[in-house]
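Note to self: user wants both folds in one dump. Writing first protein now.
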Amino acid sequence: MRLPLLAPSLLRRALLAAALALALSGCATPFDNAPLNPPLSASGQPDVRPQRDIVGEHAIALSLSGGGLRASAFALGVAQALAEGPRGADVYDDLTFISSVSGGSLTAAYLALEGRSGLHSFRARVLERNFEADLRLSLWSPANLGRLLAGGLNDRSNLAAVIDREVFRGATFADLYRRGKPDVWINATDLYNRTPFPFIPPVFGGLCSDLSQLRLSEAVAASMAVPLAFAPVVLQTFAERCASGLPAWVQQAGAEVGGVTAGILQATARAYANYRNPQRMRYVKLADGGLTDNQGLASLLVARSVAGTPHGPLTEGDAVRVRQLLFLVVDAGRPPSGDWALQASGPSALDIGLAAADAAVDSATRLSLAAFREALVDWRESVVAFRCALPMERVRRHLPAGKPWRCDDVHFELDVIGFDKVDPERAQRLRIMPTRLALEREEIDLAVGAGREATWKSTALQRYLRRKEQGPAP
């Protein structure tokens, strides 16, 4: 998500308070960040694993950006549009995969857990809540100054506790896996290794920890943990519980050369190796996923690189069945703001800090999007080559009897669903809407409605609907 999660004035106050706190004597106030992730069982395997072979002939994937509740509401509108598409088309059941960061993670986790009914209950359960009422905001409190020194104004005892109790009702990843699809990747940032941290079983395999028993609220809180406003969410590593060594891709990553993906892969491999080294890391400190990629695409690039198959991370069955995959990048980020570019003086030191952080986030996001576009083209070509080389007896294992099929009838497409797809007046109102955890009813209406409108205007979605109506190529 674009920094900050809360209103810019709040982060400025937090930065000022942090500077003041450093000048004051006294002890930091402890906060609740004890790691809650359990180790792997004696078998070395998670208790519950996500279901696979979930991709059908037609599949839609969403990547939900950050941006506070504005992003959550905009993402809800996108999801609703899939169920209320042009000409009454309903393709919501084609939704197979969601990657998310920050405010988008609230929507992703909720819809995946609640299913289609979540399209109607999300507004009352999430969007109409004032989550800021549950946060520590006063910067005149000595205890809060101590908390800033200790790592952040807020911890698990407020936001994470509220979304666990009121939104997810104690649900774990095991509960999510039982739903089947969509498969959800909630992304945070590993502060020490400076890499994306997706809450998925392969990464928790690096920690030798059982993701299935972790509460969803922990992942969403980590994905939303903007520095200073929130203390990092902490996970523990359990290297002694892993029977296997490092996977082959970690050892091979150093051989990768060239391109954005190679750099991301190498950094991720170093992080994975650190998780298995108790002399290097015993705890993983997580913050807002938007710090490394505000659209949650970097971890998908890594998954593609380390899959070890031409069709991965799709299974063989997925690769055989899929005819079209539409990837919608839902971008609810805000453009540059402030009036200091209109005058010779300024910006202030605080504005410089905020602008530098935003520049780093936006740069990483642009690179990830460009790399993902290229990877999607390569992925489609690899899937076609795999399908065309596959013996027909293996093809028929994954298809209904008599189902028409052609090995090159595969379409992968990407589109960005952003504010530029709605009318200019509404787009401008969205761009100036504060990035915070409380919205007025009118703001909710605006963001949800804009998400629907922007999705319906997607030419990529319209092509997807036409192909679905036409059926398989002869």
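First done. Writing the second protein, which came from a different request thread.
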Amino acid sequence: MDDRFNTIAGWTLFSGIVALGLASVSSHMFMADKNERPETMGYKIAGVVSSEKGAAAEVPIETLLASADLAKGEATFKKCASCHTVNQGGANGIGPNLYGVVGEAVATGRGGFAFSDDLKKAGGKWDWTALNHWLTSPKSMAAGTKMTFAGLEDPQERANVIAYLNSQGSNLPLPAAPAAAAAPAEGAAAADAAAKPAEGAAAAAPAAPAKP
């Protein structure tokens, strides 16, 4: 009887040790690297500029257009060729023909193409700013647009495409790049202000008496 009890107790103890060991191993496997904070929190979203650590604002589209490359813009436009034509008199496809589109009213004309109601509500003209907004993320400009293209994340690539579209029938003068902001003079002004009291104090200080 004692032998049977000892056997059962031994197997029970052995099973407990095995179970404890398996639990420890599995916890190490599933929790590996889970207690360390990711180097970069969140996920990157196309077209959004991070404000962490004072990230610089995006370069104005007018500045980028000044250095736009038409050949590169044409190469990028090939991504759009499955839906759009850009030649004069070209037919509408899944998207409208884009010949001479720069400067025209948004969602009008284009041989009677059926634009989405959301794009019609956007209004305005396809100027440099509107085209840059559209090419960054069509759905951010018109949520209900029929266009499924996600957008171009690279600002210079967008400028290249816009310049290329402008060369296809619009030929509008490219906008002047905004003047660079003058360097702030606050530091110099503060230095002058700090120096003046010191000079005044030196002038007001009584002269030391002459030694006999």
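Dump finished. Worth passing along: Residues 2-30 form the longest helix (29 residues).
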